[in-house]
Predict the 3D structure of the following.
Amino acid sequence: MTTVFLSHKTEHAATAQALAAALGIVVPRGEIFLAEEIRKGDDWRANVDQALTEAARPHGCSTTRISISTRRFANTPWTSGKD
């Protein structure tokens, strides 16, 4: 079951792993999804879709999606609404 979905670019993997470790203090580590934990050869898209679906499902507890992004990404037209 996924209750925390961490989304990030490959270049931020170390930050995502550190965040997952910190969140592991309050959330069981098995409930935190990081894409780099998908085994080679497994269907990447299916794993991501499943984790997103689980994170969106009510489990009797809150679910969280966390996106790690840079200032550069936050200032792009599709995220800031600015042209």
Notes: The helical segments are 13-23, 44-56, 71-74, 77-80. Residues 2 and 54 are 5 Å apart (CA to CA). Residues 44-56 form the longest helix (13 residues).
